[in-house]
Amino acid sequence: xxxxxxxxxxxxxxxxxxxxxxxxxxxxxxxxxxxxxxxxxxxxxxxxxxxxxxxxxxxxxxxxxxxxxxxxxxxxxxxxxxxxxxxxxxxxxxxxxxxxxxxxxxxxxxxxxxxxxxxxxxxxxxxxxxxxxxxxxxxxxxxxxxxxxxxxxxxxxxxxxxxxxxxxxxxxxxxxxxxxxxxxxxxxxxxxxxxxxxxxxxxxxxxxxxxxxxxxxxxxxxxxxxxxxxxxxxxxxxxxxxxxxxxxxxxxxxxxxxxxxxxxxxxxxxxxxxxxxxxxxxxxxxxxxxxxxxxxxxxxxxxxxxxxxxxxxxxxxxxxxxxxxxxxxxxxxxxxxxxxxxxxxxxxxxxxxxxxxxxxxxxxxxxxxxxxxxxxxxxxxxxxxxxxxxxxxxxxxxxxxxxxxxxxxxxxxxxxxxxxxxxxxxxxxxxxxx
Amino acid sequence: xxxxxxxxxxxxxxxxxxxxxxxxxxxxxxxxxxxxxxxxxxxxxxxxxxxxxxxxxxxxxxxxxxxxxxxxxxxxxxxxxxxxxxxxxxxxxxxxxxxxxxxxxxxxxxxxxxxxxxxxxxxxxxxxxxxxxxxxxxxxxxxxxxxxxxxxxxxxxxxxxxxxxxxxxxxxxxxxxxxxxxxxxxxxxxxxxx
Lengths: 434, 194
Fold this sequence. Notes:
Low-confidence stretches of chain B: 1-9, 11-24
Helix content of chain B: 55-70%
Oligomer: heterodimer
Shape of chain B: globular
Largest interface: A-B, 54 and 42 residues
Number of strands of chain A: 25
Number of helices of chain B: 11
Shape of chain A: globular
Strand content of chain B: under 5%
Mean pLDDT of chain A: 92
Mean pLDDT of chain B: 89
């Protein structure tokens, strides 16, 4: 495996760790940050190779090739969550969402290491992998995505989720859910339990309902999709309701939190969701639990009581640990949603701040953007966009900019937005992995 | 990899330049322009299909388009919403940054029959403004050679629907008389010119 050639390993782990057998650990880790090791300007480690992490790694390297960048990702391949609802709808393969890290390693000069980081030592500036290896950093970027609060739903846990998938991390569970939909008899009911705020991809559950309904309409027209929501309103609500009505009529139903949508427990054997008042027995059940910052952020003490990571919103440096930056879904980023584009944008702001710091400069004034497309039907796309700036230390939307696709847009415009959604994906994926 | 090197140098220069200049509230060209890459590709080198390549386009043209999006003068699904989030000088900085990048043509394969039809239309009606098969950029004529055909087609269809209201008027008048197949052939032709 090219990933673990000796040369790359030495670069990845740093000369110190590679010599760990010969030199005492103390001598190695006592080094202070901002040292210019190995002739470079410093070592940046990025944990997590997704929408935030892959971008941060690439843009640090693009801005300053003299900085050593190591991207540590637990999986060999990455599967994109954005556009994965099209796999459920049947119009897309999971392969089209799957990417490797070879180009980042071969073309961009990033040391890509496959390992799962299980501990961070903020004082010694080291991280430790499941493999037992230790990696030294001057600046650490943590982009771990989300973890699930299974404990909020009685009877739900990671093991049950293999059978009653949340499919809120794209990959095997996406495929499982698709297979369950394929196996379902016509006339069946698919429940989607949508999580409380804040969570990854606010329009995601509602696009999912539309994509599943799209599949049903084509192949199982007597079936229904019912969204049981923990909330009383949701992202792009007007546009989604308009699209549901237009394409799927009463095949899609939405139950608000106040209307009985809050789910407290699951009986996995009978596929029954237990609400505050009613019980819902489904033929297919997609239970998306409440969320929090990814596991390593919790373990390393980067999250606060909310479960998410407070950061300086100008640089994404953790408010809890110096020289550690948290980006993407895991961080608290003012008005920005937990979306792929937001993570991309944060990755670039964070990268610029780190490059500035390692060059002895102050961080520049940041600029952030978000665009989220949703595909309701193959030729019916909608979007929300926002441009952000930093005001009094907080990320806020620029007034008068951004907003939703208009409610009265023509069918031609909706068709173009659906195409833009797919082109957006090509570009943001290329931004990450090429 | 000469092209990439040039792009890297340009970015590094921009970052260093901005670093020494960062007054409170001023956002550097690279900081601003990198927000575009999620849709338009790294350094504006779009990966397809409907997103135009903007890296390497002429500065004045990009400025004009961005300012038209901001004012609402130019139709769009989303660019109007986004352009309004930047000041006029920021849009100019984005245009300059993108103009400094190397143009990277789309690697798309084209249909030789369609290309031939498109070339004939180009030679008859378009080449006075879009010189060197759409490679030359001046007088509000953007680069067409190497652009993604889906985008060129999207623009031509829009111009077709606008007719004489398509800017510039002389282009609208010609495009409105062409069939959808002919427009497609033109998009293929320009895509074939790398």
